[in-house]
Specification:
Blueprint lengths: L1 H17 L4 H17 L3 H15 L7 H17 L3 H18 L5 H16 L3 H18 L2 H21 L4 H12 L7 H15 L8 H6 L11 E3 L18 E9 L5 E9 L7 H10 L2 E2 L11 E10 L18 E6 L11
Antiparallel strand pairs: 1-4, 2-3, 2-5, 5-6
Length: 351
């Protein structure tokens, strides 16, 4: 079935190009095709599909700024998954430049895209660059009256440092400073983020209690109405990236399904699919970590079983800087990337 979907998406893209369809139509078809290739596990081919379309549509930023920005944003994701961090960073910048080429200088979409760039810097561990962008977006959004964008930027900073604090308590004060910038705001646009602060507070509070008491603290946090599963804690697993001889050249991934129950605990963790190159010991460790997750309690879940989620875990071995031989070499130590692919799978029927 997956092979048929890939072939069908390929034919649709080729037909679009053959009839010289509009750039935004080609971009849409390329995004569908590359998504099918990604789900099939061919990350390199998926990225190449988008790069070819980028080459053909590069001069249409001003006419189709949103579509071209979407293309660069997808390239950012695939570059990260294919182990090209430098290309991923450039794609994040290109996505912003595309919007600037065709939208008003103060358009909120430009500020929202810069939040994606901040996430890229955070992913790479460049926290100073990340926080500079976040603060710049906060300042501009406030000045222009885009309070929903300002709130999102502030919460992104608070969530980032709260997550960092769970691994290193030295970030706890930074997390509190960011959350305090939201707590006293009274604008309507800040309402949902003030509610979400309760979850961050529960997350931060666990740092001050014994490890065995942390689940109790999180379980006592109040449910919130949301269509998203909000992760509060996952047991830390070290050395995911210890590799074998072929692991840095052959893709390793697994699609994992689970239910987030009403109380925020996880049930029924199941592997739905995996790469031809069987994942190493990291998969067993990740499955154990997922089973031990704690999410925010759900308020009035639609399904009595809770919320169904499917995530792909990809072991990524980044390309190292080119040496004198000029032959690209991948790192011998990988890191896990998580992609939400819930929409790619059907929710199992109730028994």
């Amino acid at each position: 079935m997956v092979a048929r979907q890939v072939a069908g998406a390929k034919r649709a893209l080729e037909a679009c190009i053959a009839r010289q369809c509009l750039p935004n139509e080609e971009i849409r078809a390329a995004l569908v095709y590359s998504t099918r290739q990604f789900l099939a596990g061919d990350y390199t081919a998926a990225r190449q599909t988008l790069m070819k379309t980028r080459h053909r549509t590069a001069k249409f930023d001003a006419q189709y700024p949103v579509a071209v920005s979407d293309l660069h944003r997808a390239l950012n994701s695939l570059a990260n998954l294919d182990g090209h961090p430098d290309a991923a960073r450039l794609s994040a910048f290109d996505a912003t430049d595309a919007l600037r080429a065709g939208l008003a200088p103060d358009h909120p979409l430009i500020l929202l895209q810069r939040l994606d760039t901040a996430r890229q810097f955070a992913r790479e561990g460049h926290l100073e660059s990340c926080t500079q962008i976040l603060n710049n977006v906060v300042s501009k959004a406030h000045k222009q009256g885009y309070y929903s964008v300002e709130a999102q930027a502030l919460f992104q900073g608070a969530a980032l440092f709260a997550a960092l604090a769970t691994a290193d308590p030295a970030y706890r004060n930074a997390a509190k400073l960011w959350r305090n910038r939201i707590a006293d705001r009274t604008e309507n646009e800040f309402g949902e983020y003030r509610d979400a602060l309760k979850l961050l507070d529960a997350q931060i509070a666990t740092l001050a209690v014994r490890r065995r008491d942390r689940d109790r603290v999180l379980a006592n946090s109040k449910p919130i109405a949301t269509t998203e599963a909000m992760l509060l804690r996952e047991p830390e697993v070290r050395d995911f990236g210890l590799v074998g001889t072929d692991a840095n050249t052959k893709p390793e991934w697994a699609d994992v399904a689970f239910w987030v129950r009403a109380d925020g605990s996880v049930a029924d963790v199941m592997v739905l699919g995996r790469s031809k190159s069987l994942p190493g010991a990291w998969l067993a460790r990740k499955l154990t970590a997922v089973a031990g997750r704690r999410y925010a309690p759900l308020k009035n879940p639609v399904d009595r079983r809770g919320m169904y989620r499917v995530e792909r875990y990809s072991m990524v071995y980044p390309l190292l800087p080119i040496t004198e031989s000029r032959i690209p070499v991948r790192s011998g130590r990988g890191h896990l990337e998580t992609t939400d692919i819930t929409l790619a799978y059907r929710q199992p029927p109730a028994s």
